[in-house]
Each structure stands twice: as C-alpha cells, then as structure tokens.
Design goal:
This protein has about 800 residues and is mostly helical. It has 31 helices and eight strands.
C-alpha cells in the first residue's frame, strides 16, 4: 500500500512539474482584447488577399525556393516525414496537456476552436480561390473529409493557429518548441512537394489570423507577469514584498498589483510587453489624428515609468498630495514596475453628490493649482484620479503627465476636471468652483476644449450612461458655463487633423470608384450605349431615380414612432446610394442605423428599425405589388434566364447558421443575458411599428411609392431607346430582378443580375436584344450608380450637420 502511495505521489509531482513547466503559474484573469491582435488580424487579412491573388501562379523566385528544398537528397526523406507529422502530434499534445494535465479548460477550448477554424477556413479558401467553386460548394467541401487543397497549406495553418493561440498562456520554452515545430513543418512541406512557398506563406498567415480572431473573441491574458515574477522583481529593486496578487480593479493600459511589506500596503504598476505596445500605438494614433497629440511619446517602458516617478516625486516635494514613490525601474525579464504607497480613501467619482461639498471642490482645485505651480500637468484628470482621503484629496495616476509644453496643456486639465465635477455636482457649482480656483479666463479657455476627444474614457462613459448624448451635454455645459461667467459662449477649437468621418468617406470613395469602374466597364461602351438615346426620356429617368428617395424616406419614417424630418431623411436616402456602392449590402443599413441613433434611438432599436424593419417593409411592398401586377396583367416569363444558381443552397446554409447561433445564444447563460435584452428591445420596436396604423401606412406606402417610381424609371429608360413594355409586366419583372439581385450569393451578383438578368427578361417580353441590353445598362447607371455622386456630397453634408 505504501509503495502505491509513493508511486501516486511521484506521478502527481511529475504532473505538477509538467503543468508548471508548460503553462507556469500565471494568473490569467482578467482576459482582454488586445490592440496588437486587432493589428494582426487586419494585417493578416491584407496579406491573405495578396497571397490569394498569386495562388496557382508560380514565379521564378518561388520556383527556385521550392526546388532548393524539394531537390535535397532522398535519404533525408524519413527526417522530413517525421518533422511533417510532428506538427499534428504537437497540436494534440498541447490540447491534451492543457485539458488533462493543466486543467485549463478555457485554453483547451480556445486551442480546439483555433485548430478547427483554421482547418475549415483553409479548405474553404482552397475551394473558392484555387478550384473556383461557388460558396455553396465551398461550404460543402469544408464538411467532408478528403485531401486538402495545396493553397493554403491547411496542416500548417492548423499548427500555427494552435501554437499562436496558446502563446499567451505557455512558458517561453514551450513557445520556442512550438515555433520550432512550425518552422520544421514549413520546410518539410516544400521538401515533400505538398506546398509551394506561397501556399506555405498563406497557411502561416491564416493560422496567425485565426489565433488573433480567437483571442479577440474570448480575450487573452496578454502575457501578464505572474505574481511570483513580480515578487522576484520587487526583490531586485530592494523591496521585500509579501502577498503579491492582482488588484481587484484592473485599469486599461497596464497591470495593477497589490502587496505589502513591513511598513504597510504597496501598489505596483506593471507594464508588460503587450501593454507597452498597446500604449505606444494609442499614443501614435492620437499624435496622427489630433493636433494636440497629448503627452510626449514614450519609446520604452522604462522611459515611461521613470518619467511618471519623476513627476510624482517632484510634485510631492512641492507640497502636492500624491502617493509616495518607493521604486521605479525594470527588473526580471519582462516588465517595468512603479511601486508606491496606496492612498486610503474613496474616489471622487464614487462619492454621493451630497458628500461633494463646495469646500471639497475648492480643495480639489487647490491641489490642481499646486500641481500647475510645479509646471506639471496631469493629462487625465477625472473623478477616478482624485482620491478623497481623511486628510484631503490626493491626485493619483500620472501616466499621461507632462512637464514640457506646460502652458498648452493646462486648459486640458481644467476642461477634464470641469466636465468630471459637473457630472457629479451640477454645472453651476462646478463652474463656480473652477473659476474661484483658477480664474475666469482659464475656465473660458478650457471651454473651447470641452469636447469628447479631450476627456478621459471614464468621463466619457459616465456622461454617456447618465445623459445619453455626451456631445450634446458638453455643448449645454459650455453654454451654461459661459452664462455663469457672464461671457459669450466660445467657439470650440478644432482638435482633429483628420476626422474619422472624412477618412471613412475618402476610403469609401476609392472603393466606390473601383466598384463603379469594375461594374460599368469601359467608358467607350457607355458612350456607345447612350449615343442613340432620347435624352428627354433619359432626363425623366434621372428625375424619377432621385424621386424614389422620397418614398424610401417615408418608409423609414414608418419604422420609428418619432417624427423624422422629411428633408434630412430624404437626403439620407440619397447618401445611401454612395454607401451601398462603397459597401454593398450593409453600407446603407449602417447609415440608416447611425441616423436613427443620432435622433435619440438606442442601438438595438435603431438596428431593428433601420435594418430589419426597413428591409421587411421593402420586401412586403415588393411582394404586394408583384402579386398585384400578375393579377392585373398575367405574363409568362422564363425565370430560368436569371442566374439564380446556388440561391436555395445559400438560403439553407443561412437558415442553419441562424439556428446554430440561436442555440449558442440560448444555451450559454452569460451570452444570453448579454444578447437577449437588446433583442427584446428590438422586438418591441418592430411590434410597436406593426401595431401603429400611422407607422404601418408610412412603412408600406413609402416602399410601394418607391417601387412604383423605380419601375417608371425603368420604363423611361426603355422608351429612351425606342422600346415599350406594358407597365404591369414591367413592374413584376423589375421587382423580381431587383429582389433576386439583392440575395444571389455570387460575387458581383447585383450587377450581373441587373444587366444580364433584366435584359434577358426584356427580351422574353419581345423587346429587341440591342434595345434590351442598352435599357438594362442605362437603368443600372441611372438608378444605382449615378446617384452615388450626389450621395457623396449628401453624406458629407449630413456628417457636417451632426446627422451621422
């Protein structure tokens, strides 16, 4: 019995060592979605597109690289076969070790999901890119076993996805072994002739992208130092700390740990590699986008920590109430640390408004004035950075502080604290306290900066939660502050070098221009089409094309109980001509949702109204008119002329995806609690619209009017080329073609069905073939493409007047 106990003890000790040697004792929570993973995913998407463009085409350089490995001596075949199979063994070993020995069920789930997604996406990409299969056939290929396509190297993609997904969890030796296996597998694939360099590259990038996507979906530890590593680092800095652990509240941008020594509690700010990268990118982004880029860019973690410690020591020496700094520097292999004594008190933002007296406000502003007297600005002053202790308020967290460009940054501090205190005690008290402490002129200067870009994330979140429209609240605060100070409201300073809306508009313009040129074809063909057209009818078609936006605007008015202004709503429909061209399918819907949000409708209700209900109203009107047209004037049309291949298959796959998503949401309580409240609000919005006679009349009537005008536009184009078809068959044909064009799952489906399909239907009605083709192309240009030009100006106008 004693022998069995000894064997069991040894086995458990080996398991413990295996677990510690593979995964380490890292404390993984809280999991985060890291900026670096977003960058990896975006870069991988671009690289995959570039790689797919070269799939099947082998350059001389690629052939030379492949020949170098493929022509190595044959006696190396057993070695490379072993290395090629080693990848699969390593994937299984990681998953089994994580699940069985490490008891890391979350990690095992991430690894299994990463490997499965990489295998599925790899096979799908191979079918679509190399084989040229349709989406339906590609999805079918994913679900069956068999040989994988060469592009991308699927086995390699699975290996990279699993190794990269495990990287934030495992120790350095385990990571090195994993990447050795990846490199060996890549070389073995070329030696064995199963993949060319481009195929290998695509497999590596695909696995990289899938791992980043899994990390973004569930979050990841981000390579955070362990408690033991931090304890040893503190010892290197001369601090004998005990009970080192993660703090309960984790801020953004760094890891916060707590500990204690012989003199009392400690607070340790730890900046790891991933956190430093995220901060660098955030500062770089602000420097590019805003005229005032904030504090000077810190190139290293040590630079940032030492600067923060210097500012705190200088402020404390000049009498400002800040935490006492004990140590700052790098220690150990991974992190930079700032150690200080925590302030025992309550955050200003967490105090009840009745406890924030005028005396307390004066003392808070007094600390800010003392800080500025040291020629130091804080940079992130809000209710979370002011700790109210028994001996008075203290200022904490000087990560964004600066002692250079001092005078330019002082109004920023004042604007930040003014907005934070106004949200607690009200506008008048906050403004009066600020003016008494720093003077009327400085407060007026701060009012020119009172905009969301200046405020901290915590202040923006509180304003959004309390007032909904934080930009509108800040505008009201600026007006009321000017009134309290007896001055005219100052104009806002333009902080942004480039507006996000302008950047999106520029990108959308390039995409739309590319789509337009690709769909329309050569300009000479367009000119030849219109050479013999009757321009009076072409002009009428243009007028009717723009008039259809009035119908769609009325339809959108019927989706919400609010009274939407008719002209901006119509202008929105014109703007959608541009967004639908730039981002087919979702561009216009996104624009409608944003427009409704700006009118005060919550996001879930806006999506239900501007997305689902608007589409439902359009479809219902189309079905109603289609049936009416067939009843009034029956016509026989060969609908097989329309390229609808794969439509039923696509519908079945879509229904299956919806069913799986519903089961996934309903089966996981945490996701259900997050998803269901917005779904309930959205359903309530739809139900209230269907119960309201006014909204139902606008929803159906507006879309009926728009559909009729669209058909009159097509009829005008047909008359312009000397053709004629009775209105009711033309209405049925137009509805059928437009409906099928919007859901056919083929690249360029809308353009293909709109030209080939419509011209085929017109020929079936007895229209001469050359007239039918010219009519279809003219209708496509006038109704879908040309309105995108004024749509670009409409988008700019709506964004400039804060409708988007």
């Amino acid at each position: 019995m004693a022998g069995r106990t000894t064997l069991l003890t040894r086995w458990l000790e080996r398991v413990r060592r295996l677990r510690a040697g593979t995964f380490g004792p890292a404390s993984e929570e809280p999991y985060r979605r890291r900026t670096s993973d977003w960058i990896r995913l975006g870069a991988a998407a671009v690289l995959l597109v570039v790689s797919a463009q070269h799939a099947g085409g082998i350059s001389a350089t690629e052939q030379a690289i492949f020949d170098f490995f493929n022509t190595l001596p044959g006696w190396l075949d057993p070695l490379f076969n072993t290395l090629y199979r080693l990848g699969a063994l390593w994937v299984v070993a990681l998953v089994v070790t994580a699940a069985v020995f490490g008891r890391r069920w979350r990690l095992a789930r991430d690894l299994l999901l990463a490997g499965s997604l990489a295998w599925g996406f790899g096979r799908l990409a191979g079918q679509l890119v190399v084989e040229g299969a349709s989406l339906g056939h590609g999805l079918t290929a994913v679900t069956r076993l068999g040989s994988s396509p060469a592009f991308p190297a699927v086995r390699l993609a699975v290996l990279v996805a699993v190794v990269r997904a495990a990287q934030p969890y495992v120790t350095r030796p385990t990571r090195r072994i994993g990447w050795f296996v990846v490199a060996s597998g890549a070389l073995a694939a070329m030696y064995l002739g199963s993949a060319y360099p481009n195929d290998v590259f695509a497999g590596l990038v695909l696995g990289w992208a899938v791992a980043a996507g899994v990390h973004l979906l569930f979050g990841s530890p981000g390579g955070r130092p362990t408690s033991e590593q931090v304890r040893r680092s503190l010892a290197e800095l001369g601090i004998d700390a005990a009970d080192v652990r993660l703090a309960h509240h984790q801020p953004t941008g760094y890891t916060l740990m707590s500990a204690s020594d012989a003199s009392g509690p400690l607070r340790i700010k730890v900046i790891g590699r991933d956190e430093a990268d995220a901060q660098f990118l955030a500062q770089l982004w602000r420097f590019v986008i805003y005229r005032d880029g904030g504090p000077r860019l810190a190139l290293t973690r040590l630079h940032q920590i030492e600067h923060e410690a210097f500012v705190m020591l200088l402020a404390r020496d000049r009498g400002v109430a800040v935490p006492a700094v004990l140590a700052a520097g790098t220690a150990g292999p991974r992190a930079a640390l700032l150690v200080h004594r925590p302030v025992a008190g309550t955050r200003l933002s967490e105090l009840e408004p009745v406890l924030v007296t005028d005396d307390l406000l004066r003392r808070v502003w007094g600390q800010v004035g003392a800080l500025h007297a040291c020629h130091i600005t804080h940079g992130q002053l809000d209710g979370d950075r002011v700790i109210v202790a028994p001996d008075g308020p203290h200022l904490v967290d000087f990560a964004a502080s600066t002692s250079t460009r001092f005078h330019r940054r002082v109004p920023v501090d004042v604007a930040q604290l003014l907005a934070a205190t106004a949200a607690i005690v009200g506008d008048r008290r906050a403004v009066e306290a600020a003016a008494d402490a720093v003077g009327t002129e400085l407060v007026l200067e701060a009012l020119t900066l009172l905009q969301p870009a200046v405020l901290t994330r915590a202040t923006r979140q509180r304003l959004s939660e309390r007032y909904g429209d934080r930009r509108g609240y800040l505008g009201d605060l600026r007006l009321s502050a000017a009134s309290v100070l007896g001055a005219d409201p100052p104009e806002l300073v333009q902080l942004q070098r480039v507006r996000a809306s302008s950047l999106a508009l520029a990108i959308g313009t390039l995409v739309a221009a590319g789509v337009l040129l690709g769909d329309v074809g050569e300009p000479t063909m367009v000119l030849h089409t219109f050479r013999n057209a009757d321009w009076s009818w072409i002009s009428a078609a243009l007028v009717l094309s723009f008039a259809s936006n009035i119908g769609f605007a009325l339809g959108l008015q019927g989706t919400v109980p609010l009274r939407l202004p008719i002209w901006p709503t119509t202008e929105l429909q014109v703007a959608m001509s541009f967004s639908n061209l730039a981002i087919p399918g979702i561009g216009g819907t996104g624009l409608q949702v944003r427009f409704l949000q700006k009118r005060g409708i919550d996001l879930s209700s806006a999506i239900a109204a501007g997305g689902l209900l608007s589409t439902l109203g359009n479809l219902s009107a189309a079905i109603l008119l289609f049936v009416l047209a067939l009843v009034v004037e029956p016509a026989t049309v060969d609908w097989s002329l329309l390229p609808t291949g794969g439509l039923v298959e696509f519908t079945l796959y879509a229904a299956a995806a919806v069913g799986v998503a519903a089961a996934f949401i309903g089966g996981i309580p945490r996701i259900r609690r997050t998803v269901m409240p917005p779904v309930v609000r959205a359903a309530s919005t739809i139900w209230s619209a269907l119960r309201s006679p006014r909204q139902l009349a606008l929803l159906l009537g507006g879309n009926v009017l728009a559909t009729l005008i669209a058909t009159w536009c097509l009829a005008a184009c047909l008359l312009a080329f000397g053709g004629h078809v009775s209105f009711w068959p033309l209405l049925a044909a137009n509805i059928g073609v437009i409906t099928v064009a919007s859901i056919v799952p083929i690249p360029g489906g809308g353009s293909a069905v709109g030209t080939v399909g419509l011209s085929a239907v017109l020929v079936a009605f007895g229209v001469r073939e050359d007239i039918a083709v010219a009519t279809a192309l003219a209708n496509q240009l006038i109704y879908f493409y040309l309105p995108a030009i004024p749509g670009w100006f409409a988008t700019r106008h709506l964004a400039r007047h804060d409708y988007l």
